[in-house]
Design a protein that fits this description.
mainly alpha, Rossmann fold, Tyrosyl-Transfer RNA Synthetase, three-stranded parallel sheet, 54% helix, binds tryptophanyl-5'AMP, aminoacyl-trna synthetase, aa-tRNA-synth_I_CS, ATP-binding
Length: 329
């Protein structure tokens, strides 16, 4: 059976890279009838120092933005990762199948550890991510392009597990979009991806940004010195990123977005892009604000989601434990 699994770090109000690159695609898969397991990766967040109260607040906020984006918590399963112990338990066994050299070689680790004495959790980060999807026997994982290497490691861990303990898991396939949303770029430096950790807040648009802030950030977006609008991501990454954002926000093909840009300068076109983004994000922001005004409801929803997630994950972990000669519960 197909099962779609994905997760987001608890960054609170997600950015439009997260939204178009992952969240909205999860929502659309779910609307097409795919069984969706989606969670807030709060265990992963601890690979960087966290203030406990702040982490809790941002986890709840992230869940609110997922719901506001259209995730259906009744048809699917929505919860906080740390509420389902099977993730961490499977992570341990998978960690024993991974090698330190392989993990230390992954680009995200090398960037974040940067030669320093990094926490062990940072090295284990992708192993926990493998456990995250395998513990639901995921078949498909919608993510942005930056997560591909993690899925390659997952496939490798599946092979090693099968070799040691017999076949159990499908090899989860990454679901990458073909609409340019797999790698939304920074508005300030289009050679980089839009990222939650960029020190310049104008580099990203958050789902919590109001219309004025969205307009300001688009207006300040770095383009180039050619006034016309064209779509050429290699030669004109900044302008092309705007065309991509426009097409995603207005639900148009890039060609249709370009059609609307005909005769406009990039400065004039930015107004069109900002309008489209404001229109697409306003309902999400308003729904999220309404949900965040009801924290008790959110907590209850997540508790219910975690119970259902445990009902899916526990039997898979029990089978893993049996295969590995470990106690079942
Ligand atoms: P995170 O929280 O960094 O990002 C969440 C999702 O958003 C995508 N994304 C982007 N897509 C397009 N353009 C961008 N600029 C952009 N930035 C981020 C990411 O690819 C991701 O799909 N390790 C994961 C969280 C995770 C996970 C998992 C994902 C934990 N366990 C299991 C899938 C399955 C992460 O840090 O995502």
């Amino acid at each position: 059976p197909r099962r779609v699994v994905s997760a987001l770090q608890p960054t609170g109000a997600l950015h439009v890279g997260n939204y178009f690159g992952a969240v909205r695609r999860c929502v659309r898969l779910q609307r097409r009838g795919e069984p969706l397991v989606l969670f807030v990766a709060d265990l992963h967040a601890h690979t960087a120092p966290q203030d406990p109260a702040e982490l809790q607040r941002r986890s709840l906020e992230t869940a609110a933005y997922l719901l506001a984006s259209g995730v259906d918590a009744e048809r699917g399963v929505l919860f906080l990762q740390s509420a389902v112990p099977a993730h961490a338990r499977l992570c341990w066994l998978l960690a024993c199948l991974a090698t330190q050299a392989r993990l230390a070689h992954l680009p995200q680790y090398r960037e974040r550890a940067a030669g320093g004495d990094a926490p062990l959790g940072l090295l284990l980060y992708p192993v926990l991510q493998a456990a995250d999807v395998l513990v639901y026997r995921a078949t498909h994982v919608p993510v942005g392009a930056d997560q591909l290497q993690h899925l390659q490691l997952t496939a490798q861990l599946v092979r090693t597990f099968h070799h040691r303990f017999g076949r159990l898991f499908p090899t989860p396939a990454p679901l990458l979009p073909d609409d340019g949303s797999d790698r939304i770029r920074s508005l300030r430096d289009p050679s980089k991806k839009m990222s939650k950790s960029d020190s310049d807040p104008k580099s990203r648009i958050l789902l919590s940004d109001g219309d004025d802030l969205i307009r300001l950030k688009i207006q300040k977006a770095v383009t180039d010195f050619t006034p016309e609008v064209s779509f050429d991501p290699a030669a004109r990454p900044g302008v092309s990123n705007l065309v991509t954002l426009h097409s995603l926000a207005a639900d148009k093909l890039p060609e249709e977005a370009l059609e609307e840009a005909r005769g406009l300068s990039t400065a004039q076109y930015k107004r069109v892009v900002a309008d489209a983004l404001c229109g697409a994000l306003r309902p999400v922001r308003e729904r999220a604000q309404a949900l965040l005004a009801r924290p008790a409801l959110l907590h209850e929803l997540l508790r219910h989601g975690a119970a259902r997630a445990r009902a899916l994950a526990d039997p898979v972990y029990a089978e893993v434990a049996a295969r590995a000669g470990l106690a079942p519960a």
